[in-house]
Amino acid sequence: MALPVPVLLVTGFLGAGKTTVVNHILAHAGGRRIAAVVNDFGSINIDAELIAGASDGVVSLANGCICCTLEGDLLRTLANLLRREPRPEAILIETSGVADPADIVRNLMDPVVLKEAPLETVLCVVDAAAPPEAMEDPLLRAQLRMADVVALSKTDLAEPEGLARVQAAVKALKPRATVIEAPQGEVPLALVLPEDVTRPPVSRDPGRRLPRAERFETLSWTAEAPLSMPRLQAAIGRLAPRLARAKGVFETAEEPGRRFLFQLAGGRAVLLPMAEGSASPPGLPSARIVFIAEIGRLSPAEIEATMADCLA
Protein backbone atom coordinates (compact mmCIF):
# COMPACT_ATOMS: atom_id res chain seq x y z
CA MET A 1 0.00 0.00 0.00
CA ALA A 2 1.31 3.44 -0.95
CA LEU A 3 2.46 5.71 1.86
CA PRO A 4 0.37 8.81 2.58
CA VAL A 5 1.51 12.04 0.93
CA PRO A 6 1.63 14.88 3.50
CA VAL A 7 0.22 18.29 2.55
CA LEU A 8 1.74 21.64 3.48
CA LEU A 9 -0.73 24.53 3.21
CA VAL A 10 0.93 27.96 2.83
CA THR A 11 -1.32 30.90 3.62
CA GLY A 12 -0.79 34.60 4.28
CA PHE A 13 -2.16 38.01 3.36
CA LEU A 14 -1.64 39.74 0.02
CA GLY A 15 2.06 40.45 -0.56
CA ALA A 16 3.28 38.75 2.62
CA GLY A 17 5.96 36.79 0.75
CA LYS A 18 4.36 33.37 0.30
CA THR A 19 5.98 32.71 -3.09
CA THR A 20 9.45 33.50 -1.70
CA VAL A 21 8.86 30.96 1.08
CA VAL A 22 7.58 28.37 -1.39
CA ASN A 23 10.63 28.84 -3.61
CA HIS A 24 12.96 28.38 -0.64
CA ILE A 25 11.20 25.17 0.42
CA LEU A 26 11.33 23.72 -3.11
CA ALA A 27 14.97 24.74 -3.56
CA HIS A 28 15.92 23.01 -0.30
CA ALA A 29 13.81 19.88 -0.71
CA GLY A 30 16.85 17.61 -0.32
CA GLY A 31 15.78 15.39 -3.20
CA ARG A 32 12.17 14.93 -2.01
CA ARG A 33 9.57 15.09 -4.79
CA ILE A 34 7.31 17.99 -3.81
CA ALA A 35 4.39 18.88 -6.06
CA ALA A 36 3.26 22.51 -5.80
CA VAL A 37 -0.29 23.76 -6.32
CA VAL A 38 -0.46 27.53 -6.79
CA ASN A 39 -3.67 29.56 -6.55
CA ASP A 40 -3.61 33.18 -7.70
CA PHE A 41 -6.65 35.40 -7.31
CA GLY A 42 -7.39 36.34 -10.91
CA SER A 43 -7.26 35.19 -14.49
CA ILE A 44 -3.47 35.67 -14.80
CA ASN A 45 -1.42 33.46 -12.49
CA ILE A 46 1.84 35.39 -12.12
CA ASP A 47 2.90 33.38 -9.05
CA ALA A 48 3.02 30.09 -10.97
CA GLU A 49 5.68 31.58 -13.26
CA LEU A 50 7.76 32.63 -10.28
CA ILE A 51 7.82 29.22 -8.59
CA ALA A 52 11.09 27.32 -8.97
CA GLY A 53 10.79 24.76 -11.76
CA ALA A 54 7.40 26.11 -12.80
CA SER A 55 7.54 24.14 -16.04
CA ASP A 56 7.72 20.84 -14.16
CA GLY A 57 5.50 19.90 -11.27
CA VAL A 58 3.65 23.14 -10.56
CA VAL A 59 -0.12 23.07 -11.02
CA SER A 60 -1.82 26.43 -11.46
CA LEU A 61 -5.35 27.10 -10.18
CA ALA A 62 -6.35 30.52 -11.53
CA ASN A 63 -9.46 32.64 -12.02
CA GLY A 64 -10.79 32.25 -8.52
CA CYS A 65 -9.97 31.54 -4.90
CA ILE A 66 -9.69 27.93 -3.71
CA CYS A 67 -11.43 28.77 -0.44
CA CYS A 68 -14.67 29.21 -2.35
CA THR A 69 -15.06 29.00 -6.14
CA LEU A 70 -12.28 26.46 -6.82
CA GLU A 71 -12.88 23.89 -4.07
CA GLY A 72 -13.76 21.16 -6.56
CA ASP A 73 -10.74 21.99 -8.72
CA LEU A 74 -8.44 21.65 -5.72
CA LEU A 75 -9.75 18.21 -4.75
CA ARG A 76 -9.55 17.00 -8.37
CA THR A 77 -5.99 18.34 -8.58
CA LEU A 78 -4.98 16.46 -5.44
CA ALA A 79 -6.49 13.25 -6.83
CA ASN A 80 -4.56 13.69 -10.09
CA LEU A 81 -1.30 14.36 -8.25
CA LEU A 82 -1.73 11.22 -6.17
CA ARG A 83 -2.09 9.18 -9.38
CA ARG A 84 1.18 10.49 -10.83
CA GLU A 85 4.09 8.18 -11.46
CA PRO A 86 6.36 8.61 -9.67
CA ARG A 87 4.03 9.66 -6.89
CA PRO A 88 5.00 12.90 -5.10
CA GLU A 89 6.42 12.56 -1.61
CA ALA A 90 4.70 15.76 -0.46
CA ILE A 91 2.24 18.32 -1.81
CA LEU A 92 2.56 22.04 -1.16
CA ILE A 93 -0.49 24.27 -1.68
CA GLU A 94 0.07 28.03 -1.90
CA THR A 95 -3.22 29.83 -1.38
CA SER A 96 -4.22 33.19 -2.75
CA GLY A 97 -3.68 36.13 -0.41
CA VAL A 98 -7.45 36.60 -0.15
CA ALA A 99 -8.13 33.03 1.01
CA ASP A 100 -9.46 32.10 4.44
CA PRO A 101 -7.66 28.79 5.05
CA ALA A 102 -10.44 27.49 7.29
CA ASP A 103 -12.52 26.58 4.25
CA ILE A 104 -9.56 24.84 2.60
CA VAL A 105 -8.73 22.95 5.80
CA ARG A 106 -12.36 21.84 6.03
CA ASN A 107 -12.06 20.25 2.57
CA LEU A 108 -8.71 18.65 3.34
CA MET A 109 -10.14 17.09 6.51
CA ASP A 110 -12.48 14.94 4.42
CA PRO A 111 -11.78 11.35 5.58
CA VAL A 112 -11.07 10.14 2.03
CA VAL A 113 -8.55 12.94 1.41
CA LEU A 114 -7.06 12.63 4.89
CA LYS A 115 -6.25 8.96 4.37
CA GLU A 116 -4.10 9.56 1.28
CA ALA A 117 -3.03 13.20 1.67
CA PRO A 118 -3.07 14.20 5.35
CA LEU A 119 -2.72 17.89 6.13
CA GLU A 120 0.62 18.04 7.94
CA THR A 121 1.17 21.78 8.51
CA VAL A 122 -0.57 25.10 7.99
CA LEU A 123 2.16 27.71 7.48
CA CYS A 124 1.12 31.36 7.67
CA VAL A 125 3.53 33.96 6.24
CA VAL A 126 3.28 37.38 7.91
CA ASP A 127 4.92 40.58 6.68
CA ALA A 128 6.97 41.74 9.69
CA ALA A 129 7.40 45.20 8.14
CA ALA A 130 3.67 45.83 7.69
CA PRO A 131 2.12 48.82 9.52
CA PRO A 132 0.60 48.15 12.98
CA GLU A 133 -2.99 48.29 11.72
CA ALA A 134 -2.31 45.38 9.35
CA MET A 135 -2.39 42.95 12.26
CA GLU A 136 -6.01 43.95 12.91
CA ASP A 137 -7.18 42.89 9.47
CA PRO A 138 -9.88 40.22 9.95
CA LEU A 139 -8.63 38.12 7.01
CA LEU A 140 -5.05 38.03 8.30
CA ARG A 141 -6.33 37.12 11.76
CA ALA A 142 -8.38 34.28 10.26
CA GLN A 143 -5.24 33.02 8.48
CA LEU A 144 -3.24 33.16 11.72
CA ARG A 145 -5.90 31.27 13.68
CA MET A 146 -5.40 28.20 11.46
CA ALA A 147 -1.59 28.32 11.57
CA ASP A 148 0.71 25.71 13.11
CA VAL A 149 3.81 27.66 12.07
CA VAL A 150 4.08 31.42 11.50
CA ALA A 151 6.96 32.67 9.35
CA LEU A 152 7.79 36.36 9.75
CA SER A 153 8.98 37.60 6.36
CA LYS A 154 10.79 40.84 5.45
CA THR A 155 12.41 41.04 8.87
CA ASP A 156 15.29 42.92 7.23
CA LEU A 157 12.86 45.75 6.46
CA ALA A 158 11.27 45.86 9.91
CA GLU A 159 12.31 48.16 12.75
CA PRO A 160 13.11 46.28 16.00
CA GLU A 161 10.05 47.76 17.76
CA GLY A 162 7.82 46.84 14.82
CA LEU A 163 9.13 43.28 14.72
CA ALA A 164 8.55 42.88 18.46
CA ARG A 165 5.03 44.26 18.07
CA VAL A 166 4.20 41.75 15.30
CA GLN A 167 5.66 38.87 17.32
CA ALA A 168 3.55 39.84 20.33
CA ALA A 169 0.39 40.16 18.21
CA VAL A 170 0.95 36.72 16.68
CA LYS A 171 1.55 35.10 20.06
CA ALA A 172 -1.53 36.75 21.52
CA LEU A 173 -3.72 35.45 18.70
CA LYS A 174 -2.17 31.99 18.33
CA PRO A 175 -0.07 31.22 21.42
CA ARG A 176 0.58 27.58 20.47
CA ALA A 177 1.96 28.36 17.01
CA THR A 178 5.69 28.04 16.32
CA VAL A 179 6.92 31.51 15.30
CA ILE A 180 10.13 31.89 13.29
CA GLU A 181 11.88 34.69 11.45
CA ALA A 182 12.16 33.89 7.75
CA PRO A 183 14.30 36.46 5.92
CA GLN A 184 14.38 35.67 2.19
CA GLY A 185 11.75 32.98 2.83
CA GLU A 186 14.09 30.77 4.87
CA VAL A 187 11.73 28.21 6.40
CA PRO A 188 13.39 24.86 7.33
CA LEU A 189 11.77 21.98 5.48
CA ALA A 190 11.99 19.72 8.56
CA LEU A 191 9.81 22.16 10.50
CA VAL A 192 6.89 21.98 8.09
CA LEU A 193 7.29 18.55 6.44
CA PRO A 194 8.76 16.00 8.90
CA GLU A 195 10.19 12.77 7.56
CA ASP A 196 7.77 10.38 9.32
CA VAL A 197 4.70 10.21 7.07
CA THR A 198 3.14 7.25 8.92
CA ARG A 199 2.14 9.07 12.09
CA PRO A 200 -1.56 9.90 12.60
CA PRO A 201 -2.74 13.18 11.06
CA VAL A 202 -3.23 16.21 13.29
CA SER A 203 -6.81 16.71 14.47
CA ARG A 204 -8.12 20.13 13.44
CA ASP A 205 -11.33 22.05 13.93
CA PRO A 206 -11.79 24.70 11.23
CA GLY A 207 -15.04 25.81 12.85
CA ARG A 208 -18.39 26.18 11.19
CA ARG A 209 -18.63 27.55 7.67
CA LEU A 210 -19.39 31.26 7.78
CA PRO A 211 -21.12 33.39 5.14
CA ARG A 212 -18.48 35.11 3.07
CA ALA A 213 -18.67 38.67 1.82
CA GLU A 214 -16.60 39.44 -1.24
CA ARG A 215 -13.99 42.03 -0.32
CA PHE A 216 -11.39 42.14 -3.08
CA GLU A 217 -11.48 42.12 -6.86
CA THR A 218 -8.76 41.59 -9.40
CA LEU A 219 -8.24 43.66 -12.54
CA SER A 220 -5.89 42.26 -15.17
CA TRP A 221 -4.13 44.15 -17.95
CA THR A 222 -2.13 42.73 -20.85
CA ALA A 223 -0.28 44.08 -23.88
CA GLU A 224 2.13 42.91 -26.53
CA ALA A 225 4.26 46.07 -26.58
CA PRO A 226 7.04 47.13 -24.19
CA LEU A 227 6.32 49.76 -21.54
CA SER A 228 7.86 53.14 -20.88
CA MET A 229 9.55 52.96 -17.50
CA PRO A 230 9.05 56.63 -16.50
CA ARG A 231 5.38 56.56 -17.48
CA LEU A 232 4.85 53.24 -15.67
CA GLN A 233 6.44 54.59 -12.48
CA ALA A 234 4.18 57.64 -12.62
CA ALA A 235 1.11 55.47 -13.21
CA ILE A 236 1.89 53.15 -10.30
CA GLY A 237 2.44 56.18 -8.09
CA ARG A 238 -1.10 57.36 -8.89
CA LEU A 239 -2.69 53.92 -8.43
CA ALA A 240 -0.74 52.70 -5.39
CA PRO A 241 -2.85 54.38 -2.67
CA ARG A 242 -5.88 52.36 -3.80
CA LEU A 243 -4.13 49.03 -4.40
CA ALA A 244 -3.89 46.16 -1.95
CA ARG A 245 -1.48 44.32 -4.25
CA ALA A 246 -0.11 44.40 -7.78
CA LYS A 247 2.31 42.18 -9.67
CA GLY A 248 3.32 41.60 -13.23
CA VAL A 249 5.99 40.90 -15.84
CA PHE A 250 6.85 43.00 -18.88
CA GLU A 251 9.63 44.40 -21.09
CA THR A 252 10.58 48.07 -21.22
CA ALA A 253 11.47 50.34 -24.11
CA GLU A 254 14.61 51.37 -22.22
CA GLU A 255 15.98 47.77 -22.10
CA PRO A 256 14.59 45.82 -25.08
CA GLY A 257 14.56 42.03 -24.71
CA ARG A 258 14.90 42.15 -20.91
CA ARG A 259 11.93 41.09 -18.80
CA PHE A 260 11.18 42.74 -15.48
CA LEU A 261 9.19 41.53 -12.48
CA PHE A 262 7.05 44.17 -10.78
CA GLN A 263 5.57 43.71 -7.30
CA LEU A 264 3.66 46.08 -5.04
CA ALA A 265 2.64 45.14 -1.50
CA GLY A 266 2.16 47.12 1.68
CA GLY A 267 2.71 50.34 -0.24
CA ARG A 268 6.20 49.21 -1.32
CA ALA A 269 6.92 48.81 -5.03
CA VAL A 270 9.80 46.65 -6.26
CA LEU A 271 11.06 46.25 -9.82
CA LEU A 272 13.59 43.49 -10.49
CA PRO A 273 15.21 42.29 -13.73
CA MET A 274 14.44 38.67 -14.50
CA ALA A 275 17.03 36.14 -15.60
CA GLU A 276 18.74 36.81 -18.92
CA GLY A 277 17.02 34.96 -21.74
CA SER A 278 13.80 34.35 -19.81
CA ALA A 279 10.72 34.54 -22.00
CA SER A 280 6.97 34.59 -21.53
CA PRO A 281 5.31 31.18 -21.69
CA PRO A 282 4.02 30.40 -25.19
CA GLY A 283 0.67 31.95 -26.02
CA LEU A 284 0.78 34.61 -23.31
CA PRO A 285 1.11 38.37 -23.90
CA SER A 286 4.56 39.82 -23.19
CA ALA A 287 3.18 42.32 -20.66
CA ARG A 288 0.87 41.00 -17.94
CA ILE A 289 -0.02 42.88 -14.76
CA VAL A 290 -2.59 42.01 -12.09
CA PHE A 291 -4.05 44.69 -9.82
CA ILE A 292 -5.90 43.70 -6.63
CA ALA A 293 -8.01 46.25 -4.78
CA GLU A 294 -10.99 46.39 -2.49
CA ILE A 295 -14.18 46.25 -4.54
CA GLY A 296 -15.14 49.58 -6.04
CA ARG A 297 -11.84 51.37 -5.52
CA LEU A 298 -10.69 50.93 -9.12
CA SER A 299 -12.53 50.43 -12.39
CA PRO A 300 -11.46 48.40 -15.44
CA ALA A 301 -11.79 51.56 -17.56
CA GLU A 302 -9.39 53.46 -15.30
CA ILE A 303 -6.83 50.65 -15.34
CA GLU A 304 -7.08 50.37 -19.14
CA ALA A 305 -6.67 54.11 -19.69
CA THR A 306 -3.84 54.44 -17.18
CA MET A 307 -1.88 51.48 -18.49
CA ALA A 308 -2.46 52.27 -22.16
CA ASP A 309 -0.65 55.53 -21.53
CA CYS A 310 2.40 53.49 -20.37
CA LEU A 311 2.88 51.77 -23.72
CA ALA A 312 6.10 52.76 -25.43
Derived structural class: alpha/beta
State the end-to-end distance.
Answer: 59 Å
Overall average residue pLDDT:
85
Number of strands: 12
For the sheet with most strands, the description reads:
7 strands, parallel
Percent range of helical residues: 25-40%
Neighbour order of strands in the largest sheet: 3-2-4-1-5-6-7
- Name the overall outline: globular
Low-confidence stretches: 62-70
Provide the gyration radius in Å: 19 Å
Bin the strand percentage. 15-25%
Number of helices: 10
Compressed to H and E, one letter per element, the order equals EHEHEHEHHEHEHEHEHEEEEH
Observed structural traits:
312 residues; alpha/beta; 10 helices
Structure description:
It is built from 10 helices and 12 strands. With 312 residues, it is α/β, with parallel strands linked by helices. The longest helix has 14 residues, at 160-173. It is globular, with a radius of gyration of 19 Å.
Structure summarized in a few sentences:
This protein has 312 residues and is α/β, with parallel strands linked by helices. It has helices at residues 18-27, 46-50, 71-82, 101-108, 111-116, 138-145, 160-173, 189-192, 229-239, 300-308; strands at 7-12, 34-39, 58-61, 90-94, 119-127, 149-153, 178-181, 216-223, 245-251, 259-265, 268-273, 287-294.
